Amino acid sequence: MRRAPDEQALLALLGVDESVAWKEVRRAFRDAVRATHPDLHAGDPEAERRLKALNAAWESINTPSKWAAYTLRPASGATRGSSGRGRDGDAVPTVGRLRVQRQQQGSSGLLNWNVELDGEVIASIENGGSSVFEAGPGRHSLRVFYGSRSSLPLQVELHRGQELVLRCRTPESLRLSLFSPKRSLVLELLRSRPLVSSH
């Protein structure tokens, strides 16, 4: 994907490309700050300018959702979904997709459940519904919750062009709900499949 010069400068400042996971971007930011901080480079008049540029760049990508939006945004002059071409000329997706399905329940399912991706709430799922969202490739932590009830965090590895289908539900065993009321929801990975591109 070809980016405009200012976008290329953002990636160059951090020393990453848009294919890395957000955690790698955060690590690169911290390393870059350490390498350019004015307190550590007392005689360098450019150190403060470099630190300000790093902080400005970081503001646009400082959460997993901002980084995903940045990597999803088409490059200058490109159209969405045309960022890469495979050997057969097919579009190669630059992101993956997560599909979280909520099991249908009776009267206990009146409240919407929240979906948290890497510590940030990104969706709400109604009883029997599902939520679909895209995320950059890499390792992600997912959790569903409502009120004081929550699932344990589920670690998933998402690749470009992959869709992970997950299901959230209440546990089948009443015993689990009684002994661990705050962990009384279940989030589980059902399957992984290739992301179908739309031509």
Q: How would you characterize the overall build of this protein?
A:
- By secondary structure, the protein is of the alpha+beta class.
- It has two domains: 5-72, Helix Hairpins, CATH 1.10.287; 96-194, Sandwich (Immunoglobulin-like), CATH 2.60.40.
- The protein contains five helices and nine strands.
- The chain has helices spanning 5-14, 22-36, 47-59, 64-72, 174-179; strands at residues 96-102, 113-117, 120-125, 130-135, 138-146, 149-150, 154-158, 162-169, 186-194.
- Strands 2, 3, 5, 6 and 7 form a five-stranded antiparallel beta sheet that branches. A four-stranded mixed beta sheet has the order 4-1-8-9.
- Strand 2 (113-117) and strand 3 (120-125) form a beta hairpin.
- Helix 2 runs antiparallel to helix 3 (47-59).
- The protein starts with a helix and ends in a 5-residue tail after the last strand.
- Mean pLDDT is 75; it is low at 1-5 and 76-90.
CATH class of the largest domain: Mainly Beta
* Structural class by SSE content: alpha+beta
**What is the domain total for the residues?**
2
- Largest sheet: number of strands, sense, barrel closure: 5 strands, antiparallel
| Corresponding CATH architecture of the largest domain | Sandwich
Number of strands: 9
Separate helix tally: 5
Task: Give the N-to-C terminal Cα separation.
Answer: 18 Å
Q: Tell me, rounded to a whole number, the average pLDDT.
A: 75
| Percent of sequence in beta strands | 25-35%
Helical residue percent?
25-40%
CATH homology superfamily of the largest domain: Carboxypeptidase-like, regulatory domain
> How would you sum up the global shape?
elongated
Question: At the third CATH level, what is the topology name of the largest domain?
Answer: Immunoglobulin-like
Listing every helix as H and every strand as E from the N terminus to the C terminus, the arrangement reads HHHHEEEEEEEEHE
Poorly predicted ranges (pLDDT <50, ≥5 residues)? 1-5, 76-90
Radius of gyration: 20 Å
